[in-house]
Amino acid sequence: MYEWLNALPKAELHMHLEGSLEPELLFRLAERNRIGLPWENVDALRSAYAFNNLQAFLDLYYQGADVLRTEQDFYDLTWAYLQKCKAQNVVHTEPFFDPQTHTDRGIPFEVVVRGISQALKDGERQLGVKSALILSFLRHLSEDQAQATLDQALPYRDTFVAVGLDSSEKGHPPSKFKRVFDRARSEGFFAVAHAGEEGPPEYIWEALDLLKIQRIDHGVRAIEDERLMQRIIDEQIPLTVCPLSNIKLCVFDHMAKHNILDMLERGVKVTVNSDDPAYFGGYVTENFEALHTHLGMTQQQAQRLAQNSLDARLVK
Ligand code: ADE
Ligand code: ZN
């Protein structure tokens, strides 16, 4: 089944580039940039990847991103991910990057975006992997800081197609970012937002009604609100679901309890994604495989999930 799932043409719509930083590359970049690390080796770092919740993961994720310093580092990070796409027949990807994670450490926006976008261009030409980049705001920071990030990004407007919202969800509702999303949309960008991962269904309503998003990232807690379920089915609003992430971050106790196939059978436009593959134990194919192993996903269901991912692209 793995080989069959791997060969299925698919799009990936929820993947944080900083979350694709494999321990081996993290150690290589630390050495290249002469940065000391608190872990003795790759295995020690990997064994730190045990999380009880989103925040525990984010603490390590931001710490890991500190090894990314130069344009070449961002290029190498993105290129490694694109090679995985090629190997797993991901024909189109819409990855996130978190500029504030880098600009707040003194790395110029330009360094980040140039390294990433050059790799994405080369990926399309040399590997045949199409892509469209999403600039994601960190929701634990203020809306003014998001506005300043958008200001910095506008001179590079040709390098990304959408804005997103990620980081610590609880206590940081989408309503906090209404004005910056209004401005980004008026500048011609698409909008997506993480909502309903750890946060309540109300955050999904806000993301739809206030941020006017095209897709919901995660959204698995929509199932707690029947009226919301009806809306996302009626309007065919895509959900970018990340099964392995949800288990690693304890959103569900076990993969056998994941609701993605129930949602699919109810007519929700759900898709399968890896979120932070270096931290959660796999790329897209491994996420599909886990659904087969633990939920009995059939080949026909896998085909519908893959087709949903192609249908839900922002850029066709
Ligand atoms: N940043 C990277 N991965 C994330 C996730 N799963 N939720 C929120 N922010 C993130
Ligand atoms: Zn995410």
From TrEMBL:
Domain of life, per lineage: Bacteria
Binding annotation for Zn(2+): 14, 16, 194, 275
Pfam families attached to this UniProt entry: A_deaminase (PF00962)
Gene3D superfamilies assigned to the protein according to its UniProt record, in alphabetical order: Metal-dependent hydrolases
Active site, UniProt feature: 197
EC number of the protein: 3.5.4.2
GO molecular function: hydrolase activity
Name of the top EC class for this enzyme: hydrolase
Reactions the enzyme catalyzes: adenine + H2O + H(+) = hypoxanthine + NH4(+)
Required co-factors: Zn(2+)
Cofactor descriptive note: Binds 1 zinc ion per subunit.
Residues given in the record as substrate binding sites: 276
Keyword set, alphabetical order: Hydrolase, Metal-binding, Nucleotide metabolism, Zinc
Site (Important for catalytic activity): 218
Domain Adenosine deaminase: start-end pairs: 9-312
SUPFAM superfamilies xref list: Metallo-dependent hydrolases
Physiological role: Catalyzes the hydrolytic deamination of adenine to hypoxanthine. Plays an important role in the purine salvage pathway and in nitrogen catabolism.
UniProt record similarity statement: Belongs to the metallo-dependent hydrolases superfamily. Adenosine and AMP deaminases family. Adenine deaminase type 2 subfamily.
Designated name of the protein: Adenine deaminase
Species per Swiss-Prot/TrEMBL record: Pseudomonas typographi
Biological classification of the source: Bacteria, Pseudomonadati, Pseudomonadota, Gammaproteobacteria, Pseudomonadales
